[in-house]
Specification:
rod-shaped; 46% helix; SH3 type barrels; 5-stranded antiparallel β-sheet; single chain; alpha+beta; 112 residues; 2 domains
Amino acid sequence: MVNNMILLQAPGDGGSAYSSIIMIVLLIAIFYFFMIRPQSQKQKKINEFRAGLKRGDKVITAGGIHGRIRDIKDNSIVILEIDDNVKIKVDLNSIYQSVADAVETGADAKAK
């Protein structure tokens, strides 16, 4: 078994070490451009949206509750009015998109 493994190995001329390093760097670059960078851009867009929220905006929560912002306290808690005289407290991080954005882009809330 050991003899078979020795025969399968390529002769070590030093060039294969450089090609291995190049392949690893190439894989890291692919992961960055196809996975990490788009996710960070998406997160930046969501953070900008949350920073721009104001009283009266229509929003959708992560749980699918539609409402209108009545108040924002301490930049972390949002008071939503979901019906006449029905208000709930929601964490700012659970608000993802406005109703106008969903209609404008044609995206569903459950696609997020």
